[in-house]
Automatic annotation (TrEMBL):
The gene is tnpB. It comes from the Bacteria. InterPro entries: Transposase_IS66_Orf2. This is IS66 family insertion sequence element accessory protein TnpB. Pfam families: TnpB_IS66. Keywords: Plasmid.
Amino acid sequence: MISLPSGTRIWLAAGMTDMRRGFDGLASIVQEKLAADPFAGHIFVFRGRRGDLVKLLWWDGDGLCLFAKRLERGRFIWPQASEGSVHLSGAQLSMLLEGIDWRRPSRTGQPERAA
């Protein structure tokens, strides 16, 4: 995994995105629909209609980076909202990219006693 500079925020674009879009098309969505700066160094995550493909747009300081991931089985968990954005933590992004429900992760167990 590529390490991100401290202070990098992760924004998930609610709703569905046309996955035929590339660098410029996704950057224009960030500017127009999300009212954010695609060159601020934050990560913007987009999902296709079928739900098995995501694209991440990130300005690394030298240029735009576009990463894509397609799940062979299952779908990426996405918020119900049809517009706007949702802030994710790095851990939530990792879960999202693994196909895990990042909204309500469940703990494997609670300690019953301390010793």
